[in-house]
Design goal:
The chain has 151 residues and is α+β, with helices and mostly antiparallel strands. 18% of the residues lie in helices and 29% in strands. The protein is built from two helices and seven strands. It has helices spanning 3-18, 40-50; strands at 23-33, 60-66, 69-72, 78-80, 96-100, 104-115, 140-141.
């Protein structure tokens, strides 16, 4: 299940970006193309595991799905490729150039008002301290992180 490695990479990038803020993450929005090969349910499950003991512990994962679309170089027709994708033009039969559908992007990070503790977790509990409640009770400030690094 490669969704776990994706979730871990996303958590690491977001933690690095919000480290200076000193606040927990309330929600994270990802934009994922339907041809990216990511199963949203598996990513959501993996995200819960990857966030344990981090500034993202208990954060909501929101996923925006991007439709796969292509354009024919021959006749200029643009259309959805569908799933499974049809990568040739229905009008003239030439191959389509893929315009969208392979995205995997971090698009929004919403921070909670509550500060992190010295261990970098929302409520003072690290990964080895057992389960903790989600920070959903914290007031949320709709604020984006200023920079999400790309590796």
């Amino acid at each position: 299940m490669h969704e776990l490695s994706i979730a871990v990479a996303v958590v690491e990038q977001v933690e690095e970006a919000v480290r200076e803020q000193g606040r927990a993450v309330a929600s994270l929005t990802l934009r994922i193309g339907e041809l990216a090969g990511v199963v949203p349910e598996a990513l959501d499950f993996s995200f819960g595991l990857a966030t344990e003991g981090t500034a993202l512990a208990g954060a909501r994962l929101l996923i925006e799905t991007v439709e796969a679309r292509g354009r024919c170089e021959g006749c200029g027709r643009e259309a959805s490729t569908g799933m499974p994708p049809v990568l040739w033009c229905a009008g003239c039969g030439r191959p389509l150039i893929l315009l969208s559908g392979r995205e995997l992007e971090i698009v929004r990070v919403t921070l909670a008002d509550g500060p992190l503790d010295a261990r970098g977790t929302p409520d003072g509990k690290g990964a080895d301290d057992g389960p903790r409640p989600a920070p959903s009770g914290l007031p949320v400030r709709d604020e984006e992180a200023s920079h999400v690094p790309h590796r």
